[in-house]
Design a protein that fits this description.
Elements: H1 2-8, E1 30-33, E2 36-39, E3 42-44, H2 47-57, H3 64-72, E4 75-76, H4 80-89, H5 92-96, E5 117-125, E6 127-134, E7 140-145, H6 150-164, E8 169-173, H7 180-189, E9 192-196, H8 205-220, H9 226-233, H10 243-248, H11 260-263, H12 269-290, E10 304-307, E11 312-319, E12 325-330, E13 333-338, E14 342-344, H13 365-376
The protein binds zinc ion.
Length: about 425
């Protein structure tokens, strides 16, 4: 029919059959040349051959943009563009090797006063240390831990809070040292405890910077840390004030000679806010430009996903209050992950109760790195629950993609928990 119309001319749209009507808008681009139906220079592929053609377009598993670009030089049919997108979103090879774009940095508002919002972390240099830093002042305390338990950490914080007061917001990672006992501590001491997604340093830049400085001070000053800390605390930050001035509204006396009148100078809070806000905007801008950041789609409860860093499939069971944070149920436990680590895998069906028929995660370079990272930093342990036992099964759980290209063949090995995940499940 298309062929006839392209030769004899098109009737009015209302006179067209239902199935031809969508082509009406392309009537001036459709032609019949040398027995081939064309839209401009692209061959119009009949429906019986479209599936094969899609496979050819996707050969090599290039991304959506590249597949569309290939199509633009060769073939066309109605709905091709969305079919390409669907194909790639439902292709396990593509999903399992996807690297997400960085998302635009979320601006964390600068606190109104010192010690209002603080952040904690744990790090190890021979011994374990607890580090506590204020968002406002960047004044940090390093506390050596003889035992890495929730109660030891809480005891240290109580001492600290008796000195500086109780902050309003305390931020930490989601490690085992900041769980039930810590939540009770937060309730008793009346502060709000917020946590960040594991392995997502972008969300906790303040503490990352403090840990870096602290580690360097410890390594460079094996004879004693006190004066090194005093030097850091009395050195002006970019805003012009030192951490001690920002926290205590006075300069601390050190070995460096200073006019006594300088020790008593007030901090101009408005100026601090203005400068910090501007610095923040600049660095966010730079980050977004450098990483060509763009927003990833929001996920919802029940969505199937591929967890990039763990190399396993899972299902979103909770959308957390913290931005871009999700709880993901997998056959190996429940994990909290930032959107950055998740790729939608709509072809993957996980229905409760979880059936343990997922393909075995592939130990890869990436996963080995994660393993060693975990071993070295037990505070980053992420699992919060055990979900199911592991059964052996050879069922294939990859369903047909919605647009009905036959499912890609998957390995049907027995599902076995990989060794590198052993520390995840409690
Ligand atoms: Zn693919």
């Amino acid at each position: 029919m298309l062929k006839d119309y392209s030769i004899t001319g098109w009737p009015a749209k209302t006179k067209l059959e239902e199935n031809i009507r969508p082509y009406y808008q392309y009537q001036f681009e459709i032609s019949f040349v040398h027995d081939i139906l064309l839209r401009n220079n692209r061959i119009i592929i009949p429906s019986s051959l479209q599936l094969r053609c899609l496979e050819f377009l996707h050969r090599g598993h290039q991304g959506i943009v590249k597949c569309r670009a290939r199509a633009k030089t060769s073939v066309w049919w109605l709905g091709l563009s969305s079919q390409i997108e669907n194909l790639i979103r439902n292709c396990p090879q593509c999903v399992e090797h996807q690297i997400n774009f960085k998302e635009p940095f979320l601006k964390d508002s600068f606190p109104e006063r010192p010690w209002q919002k603080i952040e904690l972390d744990l790090f190890k240099i021979d011994s374990w240390y607890l580090i506590v830093t204020g968002y406002y002042s960047r004044f940090f305390e390093i506390l050596k831990l003889n035992k890495m338990t929730e109660s030891v950490i809480i005891a240290k914080l109580k001492t600290l809070f008796s000195r500086f007061g109780i902050p309003e917001i305390v931020r930490s990672d989601n490690g085992p040292q900041f769980q039930s006992e810590f939540k009770k501590f937060a309730y008793d001491y009346d502060f709000h405890h917020i946590t960040s997604s594991p392995y997502f340093p972008q969300s906790n830049g303040c503490i990352e910077a403090a840990v870096k400085i602290a580690k360097s001070l410890i390594k460079k000053n094996p004879g004693g840390l006190d004066l090194a800390l005093l030097a850091y605390r009395t050195t002006p930050l970019e805003c012009g004030y030192s951490p001690s001035e920002l926290l205590m509204n006075r300069k601390l006396r050190s070995h460096l000679p200073i006019l006594p009148s300088q020790l008593n100078k007030d901090v101009n809070a408005k100026l601090v806010f203005k400068r910090e806000d501007k610095a923040k905007d600049t660095s966010i801008d730079q980050f977004n430009k450098r990483h060509r950041a763009r927003n990833l789609s929001e996920l919802k409860q029940g969505d199937s996903v591929w967890v990039i860093d763990l190399r396993i499939y899972g299902k979103i069971i909770d959308v957390l209050r913290e931005p871009r944070s999700y709880m993901v149920e997998t056959n190996f436990g429940i994990y909290r992950r930032n959107r950055y680590h998740l790729v939608p895998a709509p072809y993957y069906i996980l229905s409760p109760p979880l059936i343990s028929t997922l393909p075995q995660p592939q130990p890869s370079e990436n996963s080995v790195n994660i393993d060693s990272k975990l071993m070295n930093k037990s505070s980053r342990e992420v699992s919060t629950n055990v979900t199911t036992g592991i059964h052996n099964s050879s069922d294939n759980v990859v369903s047909s993609p919605p647009w009905s290209v036959p499912p890609l063949r998957r390995s049907t090995r027995n599902s076995k928990r990989p060794a590198y995940l052993k520390d995840y499940v409690t």
